[in-house]
Amino acid sequence: MSLAQKLQQLTGSAPSVLPELPNCFGARHVTGIAELAIPTFRITNGPVGVGQNDCVSLEVEKARPAGNAPFFAPYTHPSSAHATALPSGMAVAASFDPRVATDFGGVIATEMNNLALHVFEAPGMNLARLPILGRNFEYFGEDPYLAGTMAVAETKAVQSAGIIAMAKHFVANEQETNRMTIRETVDDQVLRELYLLPFEMSVKDGKVAAIMCSYNYLNGLQACANTAMLTGVLRDDWKFSGYVQTDFFALKNTVPSLAAGTDHEMPTPLYWSPDKIGAAIDQRSLSIGQIDTALERRYTQMFKAGIFDRKLVQTPIDFVAGGKAARRIGTRAAVLLQNNGALPLSPTARSIALVGKASQPYAQQAIAGGSILGKAMGAGGGSSDVVPDYTVSPVDGIRTALRDLGRGDAVVKLVLIDDANASATVDGVTVPFAKALETIGASDSVVVMAGTNAEEGADRATFVDKDGHQLATAAAAGLSLDWYVAKPSAIATTDPAGNTAKSSQTGAMLNAILAARSTTGVAMPQKTVLVLKDNASVAMDPALLGPQGPAILETWFPGQEDGSIVADLLFGRADPVGRLPVTFPVAGKGFLDEIAADQFPGVRDAGGTFQAVQYSEKLAIGYRWYDANAGGKCAPIAGANPCVAFPFGYGLAYTRFATSAPKLAADPRTGGYSVSLDVKNIGPRAGSEVVQAYVSLPESADRLRVKQPPKRLVGFGRVTVEPGATQTVTIAIDPAASNHPLGVWDGAQHRWVMPSGRYTLWVGTSASPADLVEAGRFVR
């Protein structure tokens, strides 16, 4: 290859028509070199399906501005090639089942091959440190072991079909606010034990072919020029043999990034343009050998995936098969949080009120990340947007299910209530709110839909003024069902003409519904279901909890099959078998109610040029923060945490289970352990239970600088049991596994160590102490 050819291959190409696919105008590819038999290399976004990809309408090119002005339309245009809009990554994590992640990755890989695409920019595995993080729905929750387990399964499924998976965003990329410039300080031990762990599992167990470096600065270095991470951790410590690509427009320099271990700039040659690289070579600050290494790393993965061996040929996507898979995944991800008798919906119900806010999309259309009321799915503007072939609305899903069940005579009324709770529409007819409550009270079943919409580009409840200056954040408000903006992908503003933050008064609406007069002989809480469609967790109003509250069903962002997924669960055609991958706090008592500005959104430096964030909570994120009583207000009462509405790992079913006493066994041959217990179905129908294992480390672990949380998840197992039957669940704990279940990072020795002393193993059905029993202890 000539130097010019090498430099052309080092970066993405400018938006252009693909030579092998003249029907595609694309902006996510490296144009091939026909005389060298190098194919055009095509990339698509993720992680919740084949997102914005390298094929938009040829008409888009006509909108190219004159001269050298930026041309962004091809990156997010809604004419992007259609694909199946799957449930969110958070939903996949909620399955607590790697087989669901495998199915998820299988749909994506099949459709990528249909579209002749090569690189899937996913899985995303940043942690839900902040429950309001705008991209939480793309990720796998608050626990690194769960996130890594799901990422490994998805990666293997994707790469087994000849597609390159790209783990992202590396690393400590846990907020969207100021994401391009944010300076984050994270203790090295905390990085290893939390934020790096899912990536380590993906490299060692998933053999992921590529890593995406992120926008943020970490411990003083920009992510794509961070030698300590890209060379020291990835390649020296983990022996990663793949290549590193930048997030789009993430590169900030020329020489330091290539020298640090970044291999591919996307989407176009900006810092790695021929003139800048050429000048660096002339000045001997870069060598041609470094360019060769970067290309060899990527070409090696392309050869492994068979990309050099297949022509760019597109074939039709089987949207029916994709839809069926999406529906299966969505039902296996739903979490039943509370049930006062309303679920499954009564088989004798002949009138159903479907209730939502008129200003919100949840009861009116299928929901994915960034859904905007009245706009087609895929128009949110974030990189995870998938343009589906069809969607199923909640009303259509419920009505279709009723017909399938032979109950076509049942009446479904759509009740949409204004933000002020003053007026409403019932099937499009305007009525006072009091009249709407009469309709709701007279219905046999009431289904209320609400949620916390989010998207790339913004965190919920962060603000700027009309001049774009960052304002103090009311972070905890972002977990409320009331808070919303018209465009979830943009930071909220105090300017009334902008993306103004608003209150839907959903909480007050729910309270009014529960207090309404029921005229069907069944009390309102016993016939009302709150269906949540969430980015991550919700801060729960105590008024909704317990016998006075509704049944609560969490369905995350269900994607294109929203209406079908929710209807399957409401009518009991599918059992809600998911478990929470995030903690649901009680309103006013959560992590976000306690954090300081330097934890989020950050504080400005003396010159006012950037904001800095301290991960000062260290290892205490998610359930670990609540376990440790880090805020000083969450000491357990009778085994239950008063700050937690629904704990990590929690979920009910349409049946009931009983478990035996666990048995802990040591394997002297391997040095590992296993814990077993029996799960008996004592209810009326088949169902699934998820048994979880947590370990408490010895006190000596705290001597390695960072205090350990009371426990960490080290294993889980799902079992499906028929009524009256019993199944045994066995969870193995391998101290040498890539998730280091018994390990602590010793920075002084630069290695993982197992603290000496007594370890305690806990087994149960959630992270709550009330749901756990001691399985045994061992000393090392």
TrEMBL record:
Q: Which SUPFAM superfamilies match?
A: (Trans)glycosidases, Beta-D-glucan exohydrolase, C-terminal domain
Indicate yes or no for the key word Metal-binding: no
Gene Ontology biological process: glucan catabolic process
Kindly state which keywords UniProt assigns to this record, in alphabetical order. Answer: Hydrolase
Regions that span the bilayer: none
Which residues, by range, are in coiled-coil regions? none
UniProt-listed Pfam families: Fn3-like (PF14310), Glyco_hydro_3 (PF00933), Glyco_hydro_3_C (PF01915)
Q: Where is the Fibronectin type III-like domain?
A: 689-767
One example of the protein's molecular function in GO is: beta-glucosidase activity
Q: Which family does it belong to?
A: Belongs to the glycosyl hydrolase 3 family.
Q: What is this protein called?
A: Glycosyl hydrolase
According to its UniProt entry, this protein's organism is: Sphingomonas glacialis
The record lists the lineage as: Bacteria, Pseudomonadati, Pseudomonadota, Alphaproteobacteria, Sphingomonadales
